[in-house]
Design a protein that fits this description.
Structural class: alpha/beta
Number of strands: 28
Strand order of the largest sheet: 7-4-6-5-9-8
Radius of gyration: 30 Å
Oligomer: single chain
Strand content: 25-35%
Largest sheet: 6 strands, mixed
CATH topology of the largest domain: Molybdenum Cofactor Biosythetic Enzyme, Chain A
Shape: elongated
Number of helices: 7
CATH superfamily of the largest domain: MoaB/Mog-like domain
Bound molecules: adenosine monophosphate, magnesium ion
CATH class of the largest domain: Alpha Beta
Number of domains: 4
């Protein structure tokens, strides 16, 4: 396992990292999973293309009409005044006209029908007039209008979709449009998750005094499943060094990444730090953000030997902090592991905040907000209580209000940046 060597990074201070810096450090260390597999086109939805899809055909395959109308020879048309042409037949989509268009001739043609040889212009039916076996075309038609030439979208041999593309319904449709039945995708990223904490209780068991139900494994499972990862749920692990060590070893034996929650705050982290030093290289970060200040990041291995190792994301325990640190750091890292190239920036949009908010200077704060429109302008309202344990604030919200480090307060009416939650997973 090669060294992670955090120390060689410029302006890297584990005790004070900006959100952007932490995201960049994580992202730069990731590399896509190597294994490819071939899947049928429908199974490829949500997967990442491993090899370019090369078009075996021209798209469209034939010159064809883009409109319902008349196929004509542009050279036959008078520049001033109407032109009378002879109606020689009809071409329908899937039923081509058998023959060539001669001088002074017009062919009734429907959208998608093959353009007959000789034609280089389609006159839309709304402007032409049929009279007996003649068609009258007004002046002002342009050569090449209302038609699609073979190979205009894509030439045979050209890459239709590039490796590194996440396959969405549009790409699935393009693949089918080429007549391609199977594509090569990267294997799914395997992510092991477990929760740590002696106070945690799994659903299905009665809640003893002082205990809380473990919700983080469920939000993590949901976010990972939506991202298209394979989730290995390892349950709740007690805050005991031997139990944790065993869990980390098991996770790293089967997963590309392991995500834990809890146990990384200053008071709790000491014995984990010692254990991690045995298992791999893990840095304990204090990120200038709220919620979600402490986070562990690094690489561990199951057997003490070589191998690529398993990425570790030790997220804080508070349920809101888990989701926000996942979105800001783990999500882009997983997209890169999945093979998405380039990893897209998640866009921020300005909105007018209608309520005042407190804000600490020097850190990025993620408040939960609800977007609405007022007088044609996008506005945002905080969801109410913003504690990092208040998971209902995430459920009520449709966006995160991202307050930059330099800001020290928000007054009602100020413009703030928001990140839509829809699309994060
Ligand atoms: P920690 O980061 O371990 O100090 O935990 C911070 C807070 O988050 C504590 O109040 C924990 O009870 C709570 N917490 C930790 N893990 C979970 C979990 N899996 N589900 C719900 N709450 C949790
Ligand atoms: Mg804990």
């Amino acid at each position: 396992m090669t060294s992670l060597n955090f120390s060689c990074l410029d302006d890297y201070d584990p005790n004070s990292l900006s959100v952007d810096r932490a995201r960049r450090v994580v992202l730069d260390m990731m590399a896509p999973v190597r294994v490819h597999e071939r899947v049928f086109v429908r199974q490829a939805l949500g997967r990442v293309l491993a090899e370019d899809v090369v078009s075996p055909v021209d798209v469209p395959a034939h010159d064809n009409s883009a409109m319902d109308g008349w196929a004509v020879r542009h050279a036959d048309l008078a520049t001033a005044g109407e032109t009378r042409l002879k109606n020689v037949g009809t071409a329908l989509a899937g039923r081509a006209f058998d023959g060539k268009l001669g001088r002074g001739e017009a062919l009734r043609i429907m959208t998608g029908a093959v353009l007959p040889a000789g034609a280089d212009c389609v006159v839309i039916q709304e402007v032409a007039r049929a009279e007996g076996d003649e068609v009258i075309v007004p002046p002002g038609q342009r050569a090449e209008q209302n038609l699609r030439r073979a190979g205009e979208d894509l030439k045979a041999g050209e890459a239709a979709i590039h490796a590194g593309t996440l396959l969405r319904p549009a790409e699935i449709g393009i693949i089918a449009s080429l007549g391609v039945a199977e594509v090569s995708v990267r294997r799914r990223v395997r992510v092991a998750i477990f929760s740590t904490g002696d106070e945690l209780c799994s659903i299905g068991t009665p809640l003893s005094p002082g205990a809380v139900y473990d919700s983080n494994r469920y939000t993590l499972w949901g976010m990972l499943t939506r991202l298209g990862c394979e989730v290995i749920d390892m349950g709740v692990v007690k805050d005991r060094p031997d139990a944790l060590e065993l869990a980390f070893k098991e996770a790293s034996a089967c997963a590309d990444a392991v995500i834990t929650s809890g146990g990384v705050s200053v008071g709790e982290a000491d014995f984990i730090k010692q254990m991690m030093a045995k298992l791999g290289e893990v840095a304990f970060w204090k990120i200038a953000m709220k919620p979600g200040r402490p986070m562990a990041f690094g690489r561990i291995r199951s057997d003490g030997a070589g191998g690529a190792g398993t990425w570790l994301f030790g997220l804080p325990g508070n349920p809101v902090a888990v989701m926000i640190t996942f979105y800001q750091f783990v999500r882009p890292a997983l997209l890169k592991l999945m093979g998405i190239d380039p990893v897209p920036e998640f866009p921020l949009f300005p909105a007018r905040c209608v309520e005042a908010m407190k804000k600490g200077r020097g850190r990025t704060e993620f408040q939960r907000g609800i977007l609405f429109q007022e007088h044609g302008e996008w506005c945002v309202r905080p969801t109410g209580a913003q504690g990092s344990g208040v998971l209902s604030s995430m459920a009520k919200a449709d966006c995160l209000i991202v307050l930059e480090p330099a800001r020290d307060k928000v007054s009602a009416g100020d413009t703030v940046m928001v990140q839509l939650m829809n699309g994060l997973v």
